[in-house]
Write a structure and sequence with these properties.
Blueprint (H helix, E strand, L loop, with lengths): L1 H7 L1 E7 L5 E7 L10 H9 L6 E2 L4 E2 L5 E5 L5 H8 L3 E6 L4 H10 L8 E6 L15 E5 L8 H11 L5 E7 L6 H12 L3 E5 L14 E8 L2
Parallel strand pairs: 5-6, 5-8, 6-7, 8-9
Antiparallel strand pairs: 1-2, 3-4, 9-11, 10-11
Length: 222
């Protein structure tokens, strides 16, 4: 009976991979913004599979053995996709999302062969020394929404990234309420220390893209 109750707490979002396998990502009926798979996470997850990164027919795999950190992972959908492509992934979020992250890692473990994924608590702006050397990639989907989180988020990007780190940021541009102000503040602060390159739609997944969802490659200024 307890198991049935637990199942009723969740609903599943399926993300079909290009190899025909399917990520099954559990979401919570009740909870904060981190408990569901947002559209930007789907767009980013599918972007990781585009041929510039991953094309088994020509031997291309930019993810194989690469160290990846996902910020604000929520359900872990993006990090899980990277792990299935061969990356060594750490998905991070606040303490209260660790149960959901761990559950989704267990549920999709069979799809992960050469890569790996672990969950870790990270509150933006706090010490990251136990993460080791800078990762090859930092992934973030729809992390730009709370005004009070802008400064610590950029601080975490500074702390985590090195000169070779590519930060891939995907976000849905929202025009209501404080969202335009929050986005503007984020990019003003970010551009003090980072360069941003917007990825055109033709380089994104042809099916999973949208005019109001943007993908950026962000690197530290040298």
């Amino acid at each position: 009976m307890a198991a049935d109750a637990d199942q009723r707490d969740y609903f599943v979002r399926e993300i079909e991979k290009n190899d025909g396998l399917t990520l099954k990502v559990k979401q919570c009926y009740l909870g904060d913004v981190g408990c569901v798979v947002w559209d930007a996470a789907i767009v980013l997850a599918k972007y990781l599979e585009t041929k510039q990164f991953y094309d088994p027919s020509s031997g291309v795999n930019a993810w194989a053995g690469r160290r990846v950190v996902e910020l604000g992972a929520g359900t872990g959908a993006v990090g899980l996709m990277a792990a299935t492509l061969g990356a060594v992934v750490t998905v991070t979020d606040l303490e209260d999302l660790q149960t959901l992250l761990s559950l989704n890692i267990r549920e999709n473990q069979a799809l992960i062969s050469s890569g790996s994924v672990t969950a870790k608590v990270l509150k933006w702006g706090e010490d990251v020394s136990d993460f080791g050397s800078p990762p090859h990639y930092v992934l973030m989907a729809d992390c730009i929404y709370y005004e009070q989180s802008i400064v610590p988020l950029v601080e975490s990007l500074m702390l985590l990234s090195g000169p070779e780190t590519c930060i891939i940021c995907c976000y849905e541009q929202r025009t209501e309420g404080v969202n335009p102000k929050v986005e503007r503040q984020f990019f003003e602060l970010l551009r003090q220390n980072f360069n941003c390159e917007e990825i055109p739609s033709e380089k994104q997944d042809p099916e999973f893209s949208s005019p109001d969802i943007h993908i950026l490659h962000i690197r530290r200024k040298v």
